UniProtKB/TrEMBL annotation:
Organism for this UniProt entry: Acetobacteroides hydrogenigenes
Topology of this chain in the membrane: Multi-pass membrane protein
Taxonomic path: Bacteria, Pseudomonadati, Bacteroidota, Bacteroidia, Bacteroidales
InterPro entries: AAA+_ATPase, ABC2_TM, ABC_transporter-like_ATP-bd, ABC_transporter-like_CS, ABCG_dom, ABCG_transporters, DjlA_N, P-loop_NTPase
Name of the molecule in the record: ABC-type multidrug transport system ATPase subunit
Transmembrane segments: 572-592, 612-632, 653-677, 689-707, 719-740, 976-996
Pfam families: ABC2_membrane, ABC2_membrane_7, ABC_tran, TerB
Subcellular location: Membrane
Amino acid sequence: MQLFALIVKQDEGVERKEREYVENFLVQQLNEDAVKEYLTLFDQHAGLLATDGEEEKETKKSRLTSVKDSVRILGICKKINKTLTQRQKIVVLVRLFELVNSEGRFSEQRMAIINTVAEVFNLSKEEFKGIEEFVLNNTAEKLDLPDVLTVHSRTIETEGKQIFSEGLSGIIAILQIKSVELYFLKYTGHDDLFLNGLPINNKRIYLFANGSTIRLPKAKPIYYSDVLARFKADENYTPLSYEVNNISYRFKTGNLGLRSISFAEEQGKLIGIMGASGAGKTTLLNVLSGIENPTEGEVLINGLNLHSQSEELKGIIGFIPQDDLLIEELTVFENLYYNAKLCFKDKTDTEVRDLVDKTLLLLGLIDQKDLKVGSPLNKMISGGQRKRLNIALELIREPSILFVDEPTSGLSSRDSENVMDLLRELALKGKLVFVVIHQPSSDIYKMFDNMLILDTGGYLIYQGNPVEAVMYFKRLDAQINSDVGECPTCGNVNPELIFNIVEAKVVDEFGRYTALRKVSPPKWEEHYKENIKMPKVETIKNAPPSALKIPSKLKQFFIYTMRDFRSKISNIQYVMLNLLEMPILAFILAYVTRYIANPKSDIYIFKDNENIPIFIFMSIIVALFVGLTLSAEEIFRDQKILKRESFLNLSRLSYLFSKTLILLSLSAIQTILFVLIANSILGIKDMYFTYWLVLFSTAVFANLLGLNISATFNSVVTIYIVIPLLMIPMMMLSGAMFTFEKLNRSISSTNRVPIIADLMATKWGYEALVVSQFKDNQFEKYFYDIDKEESKANYKLVSYLPELQKRLDQNGEALKNPTSATSKEVLEDNIAVLRHAFALEKIAVPEIRFAYLDQFTPSTYNVAINKAAYSYTDQLLSYYGKAFARFNGKKEALRSFMVNKNEKVYNELRAQYHNESISDLVKRPFEKNKILQFGNELVQQYEPIFKDPSPKGFFDFRSHFLAPQKYFAGNYIDTYWFNVAMIWLMSILLFIALYFELLKKLLFSFPYRLALLKPKSKAEN
């Protein structure tokens, strides 16, 4: 008021029209009491309340004190500078022009003051001149300015922007203030025009805000988006044509999610998508963005099919889901920094950091750059700041088309407006922005250029101007005030009115609402197709350029690794728990199993500790369990981030390698700590690396198994339910809990490990450690080779050959009565066993010959051959008896040598390295059945540690449990190294399955195929 008063009091003072303008201005802004108060303030500062003598004196003095008034004006402007935004200051300047123009007295002194105000407000000379020309001139010819758009009914040759409107008297002029994206409107004719439902006074200048609509008496309305499009037409934006042609989408369950939707849009538009819950808003967004493929129809971007020609559209689409995309453990800066590193391969680290700082400054997040973002429940930054940072992740690479799912969900009204302002600014920069919005405020609703409204079942029931949508549905509902879209008093729009009409229920005879709708979704769609024509856009033929330049796969790997590493080490609780978990478990397990056999002694002796086999088994289980829990959430936690980064076309392989490297590194540290503590407590000497390699390999297997689970299931609860389902079979089939020969017959095996057990990493790890602990320790390594040969000879001497002779005796009895059925059965079975056994012995002992092997058939076998066979076994008994004596003598000689040299050292070596329980486990001395028949083969059932496997093929690596070595491709390989290699092979196969998501495809494809076979309802057809 002071500024108004000080300007109009200059020269001859305030004129009647000038005071009327001020009064009308106050009436529009304030209530009656406030109008009187501020009008009195204006009169006081304008000198209208002075006495006659004072007025005359003041009038004479006014010419002399105008400089003083200018100083006061300067002071007022400086105060305004500190309180108003630049947009508000420009509105003030326009109102000053309008005030002076009300009487038309643009004196030199008044213009000097307005110039001073413009300079203090930091308005450019070009924009000041534009405002002046806009206010003073009223003809199309004089308003032929670059920043003015005119609407008129006659064709005029002009360089300015114009819209033709038939039958319009006078002109509508709209001024653009480009620096703050502000628009002003005035009308010079006499028709009844309405701005946002209110009549337009041809003597006033109006602010033409977001969502505004000008209603003309004889022509179609002019929308804010129409005006904006004219002003933006000359700007150098990437041309876009986005055409959706009859897309439908059917879920894997068979239900229809979208039904024959078509529309077209171009660059520089903010498009809203609204609908009730279950109407298909998010589904539509997913199809439009390329995440899902439509069942029918196509989406064309500049003539290119989004789904079949996606390679040519790389990097032009951005997607911001409703859920958080931030890495909780990283700071605001780091979240944006690593995202930028993945987008710009050509930028140096300094350039990337500068770009990140610039973006944070633009979004008002620079002060929060060093704060951790935290989780949505444990917030370090506000919800609005989180949402802006989510938008920044896409904004930094400037995609041409952006899809946003419910950006205002969970935000305050102020934060919601800030976020939508940001999206609006993106559209003003030539981007095409699609936004799924739910329950928007009036201001937010009017920001959209166009609105798509869906009804339940995926029906498109409206597309067009948002404010017009309210009027459209009111007309269809035959409401009295159907020509009113917004409140005539305040200009607010109530979008909920649309859904109140669309979802209106039928009332029964008792006046109660029923579950039936008045108008069904198909009927609304029918109205839409009858009343609304799909707008056409010019199809652009050139593929839109992409600013995205992703780095090489190797560089992506390093960026992913560094990002993951930073996020983990910044979580102190995570680091401490994972570093302390294994040492604590190692201490508990080793302390509990450190058993002293002699009740009268406190001296721990490793040899007598009966818990070592259990310790080995539990160590394997600990490595498996910790490895699984360590990785089970890794990919699941990143799913939303991966969904967004899929639009960057980044390497999945690089991501998976980085995850694997981080987990392997952590597992390596964990298992080192476990082995150092546990082995030291239990006195397992000189086998630190042996134990570590097996436990580390098992943990790696568990890491990759956990990553597969993490990538497959969409719930943390499901993931942790699956873990015991995997672990328990691996515990049962590890070989530690049950003997493989004594399992259910459908899975058990007598001569080798069951196939199902060979699929368990725990079996390979447990066997490797037990075998190595027995034969590779510092004591047994001196005796093992001799013990092995002695055991072979002893087995043949004590069990194998006596069993053959027993069968020869049975044959002799059977030959006495060869025609009986029992005799034939015995002969047939025994001959097969003997033939197989003698064939093996001919190879093992070639120096002892047997000439009747070819006659070992039921038809040719006789008493003479039986006697010859008995004689052959006697020779073998003699051979193996000598062999046993020879090796037994060697062993005793070696033992005597060691005892005689230093008996104390020998006893200490045996006590510290040999363990009786491990020895019993691998020798099985108490096995009841020393030998069993399997087919036509006699299988040794004890001392498996001394028995080499018998392969059935060149690549047959399967063997009995606790074999000392394994056969593969013509070579025998030490069991420890072979088993470790098998665990790593299984891990590699799991990584391949992870890369191709084989587990997810296996688990989830079959149920959906069944669903497609179900009969469809009529509504779906």
